[in-house]
Fold this protein.
Amino acid sequence: MRILGNIIWLLPCFGIVTAFFTFILGAFLTLIVIPAPIGLGLMQLAKFELAPFSYEMISKKHIKTATDSTWETYSKIIMLFYIPLGCIIVICAVMQMIVLCITIVGIPVALVLAKSLSTYFNPVNKICVPRGVGNILADQKAQDFIRSNG
């Protein structure tokens, strides 16, 4: 079912065009160097957009990796300058979701895009992982919540 959803997203719903333009914007921002954290996040979002039914976007803080505090601080500062562009991108994504909801076939795809709106608005420190990894992280988060409140 995921493969069918990805095919419907890529071809008739023009998901490949969305992924292409998201990647181009991310690559451009990365090449400029100053907004590199935003560009890297947008390139991860483009990877997600190539197979949205097989991948998930998660925050890097959910994965225990060594992070540089200077990079994180710089990323937070640069996000302040991205907010106007992020609002424009979110508006475009919402318009795309409205158009997709007109057809019955496009409704599941619109729901996937709705789940990725937070990444459009704040792509910094987000990565694309297979859905299985996302499920395991969600289970671990639920178990931690039960342990802390139980």
